[in-house]
Amino acid sequence: MNRRDALSRVALLLGGTVIGGEFFLSGCTSSDKKIGQSVDFTADDIAYLDEIAETIIPATDTPGAKEAKVGSFMTVMVKDCYDEKQQKIFLEGMNKLNEASKQKYGGNGFMKITPEQRKELLNALDKEQKEHGKNKKKDDEPHYFSLMKQLTLLGYFTSEPGATKALRYVPVPGRFEACMPYKKGDKAWAL
Amino acid sequence: MPGDSLNVHLNTKATAQNTYDAIVVGSGISGGWAAKELCEKGLKTLVLERGRNVEHIKDYAGTEKNIWELTHHNNRTEEDKKNSPIQSKCYAYDEVSKKFFVNDIENPYNEVKKFWWIRGYHVGGRSLMWGRQSYRWSDLDFEANGKDGHGVDWPIRYKDLAPWYSYVEKFAGINGNKDGLPQLPDGEFLPAMEMNCLEKHVAASLKQNYSDRVMIMGRSANHTKQVGDRGPCQYRNKCHQGCPFGGYFSSNSATLPAAKATGNLTLRPHSIVLDVLYDKDKKRATGVRILDAETMKTEEYYAKIVFLNASTLGTAHILLHSVSDVFPNGFGNSSNQVGHNLMDHHYGVGAHGDYDGFEDSYYYGRRPNGIYIPRFRNINEKTKRSDYVRGFGYQGGASRGRGNGEDGIGVELKASLTEPGKWGMGIAAWGEHLPYYENKVTLNKEKKDKWGLPILDIDCEFKENEKIMRKDMMDSAAEMLEKAGIKNVKTFDSDPPPGFCIHEMGTARMGKDAKTSVLNGNNQMHDVKNVFITDGACMASSACQNPSLTYMALTARAADFAVNELKKGNL
């Protein structure tokens, strides 16, 4: 847990809300830049992002990221919550990821490769972004895949299927139990 | 009714229409209390609020939504940051609550030194989004100025305020335990919330390892039991969005409805107070002049007494803007203290870490409250520090994260992130800020806002005593957690500028001497006996506790005094 995590946690406990903890690690930080309202995504873009997200959070006995419409959520966040620098990294990242797929899998873009190949590719990119994050100085640009992964995790676990099926969610708890028994396998609370 | 026996001088019909027994400027946490007390004592009371109306429950739209029903799943947008670069930094600012924060561009001020001023211009003010932590002060706090010579001595002591703390706690609905601490007196509490497993463990460790400090359950204005028609708290932890269950105290849920129920309340939103009117022969305020924010027309309202509850900086603005031959430097400012001695708390520093254990324990519900470690420095000879005066308290808590890191992708990552992870515990300190004359607000001579009013120049900083204390705030946090067996303890200091703790206070301080203070021991202006100030402006020191409960108690006490004086014909 880094400082920002800690602050979020403290804010939560003091009656605040953790707002996209994962995302804010390197995402929506303060910026004076204008909003890039011209950023636009097509249905194909959303389908592509859905498949990236689904590879990160696949359907199991609970819905995956695609059913949770994470691709669409990512586009909303990139459009409204990213500054222009982050938008650029994300958009270029969409191309870079597809190029990496073509290079590795005989000219086949991400949409054409098998689920196994997708997993292999994104695993490699995940290691790459982790390495990048380790060596990154404070003001260095984040790796595009770390942005995609953060948005996927944020979007999925705050989606209806993610919060209510993959996790447990009670909109109005009605009471507080400070210490209740937990057994391995019980789901975590959403929020 | 007491108000009926008061002698009203009416000149014209128009004046009569605009004449009340009392005027309250502001409807936030202290203005709401002034309104309730004055109305209940029979005074026809006009409450002037600069912003729009916010009706309890009806105007809390959005809080019923699930997070996925919010376009950005409760995240701030670039547009939010552009329109409200300061407000959007606030922990309580989210996709639903943002309507309760001002647009910074439309409400400018000048940061002579970095100062983040968090504001809500609407009926209820910041009582809607407040943190709800509610702690009494003790004589350790009221005697501090007199003893160490910083600022001026408080004109009151704990015994003067104790019955009023009880009075406001009973109505407001504060939860907590009676912990028997001299530096943090017990109050009239609703049942306390409970610590979770790790918090209980750390509390026990503290008791074992230290003779001078304890960890207690936080005391908050969330209703653990129903209070009148309010609550109980449903443990959603969305308080700052406005609570449809009335689960916490706000002006909107509690004091304003009580004031309204008397039939004596007139609430006028969109009313920006320009200045306080003064009759130099009678040496009394006669009322206030307002600008209607919708029609842009000015209007005058008259009353026998005026309560200023426009917030620490709002009240200072009104006083500084009310100039006349008698008060060329600002209303009731013969002491030249108005706008000075601005304080906040310094916070955002502490430590956190993980804990191995309690894997078989979890919790249910989202508790809108945490733990509190009351002040333990400079509380007696034994705890006296040679390097700084005053002290700090900690707020914090423990919770269980999700998953075990975020490495990898696919089924394993998903499985990990759907289960609770390790327990973690964090504590952060709130430190006292000494009153310094040079920490001040003044009116900017050139820049005006869209209503033609001069903007505020805010010139405030933390100084040496705060900086030295701050190091102890961080180191002690880490030490206590480590002794409790917390692993991977890391310290943090987000170093927020003054203002950001949203506990700004001190711009029209109370004191014994009219030469060095603005208000007397009854929150009455030394210079103008029928004007009372009971918001944060009145504070002569900042202590380290969250101040709202003290504003409430001071307000109820001052209202009682004012009405008695009025009845005696002294005003």
From TrEMBL, chain A:
InterPro entries: Gluconate_2DH_su3. It comes from the Bacteria. It holds the Pfam family Gluconate_2-dh3. This is Twin-arginine translocation pathway signal protein. It comes from Niastella vici.
From TrEMBL, chain B:
Its cofactor is FAD. InterPro entries: FAD/NAD-bd_sf (IPR036188), GMC_OxRdtase_N (IPR000172), GMC_OxRtase_C (IPR007867), P2Ox-like (IPR051473). Residues 435-554 form the Glucose-methanol-choline oxidoreductase C-terminal domain. Residues 48-345 form the Glucose-methanol-choline oxidoreductase N-terminal domain. The keyword Repeat does not apply. GO terms for molecular function: flavin adenine dinucleotide binding; oxidoreductase activity, acting on CH-OH group of donors. SUPFAM superfamilies: FAD-linked reductases, C-terminal domain (SSF54373), FAD/NAD(P)-binding domain (SSF51905). It comes from the Bacteria. It holds the Pfam family GMC_oxred_N. Keywords: FAD, Flavoprotein, Oxidoreductase. Belongs to the GMC oxidoreductase family. This is GMC family oxidoreductase. The lineage of its organism: Bacteria, Pseudomonadati, Bacteroidota, Chitinophagia, Chitinophagales.
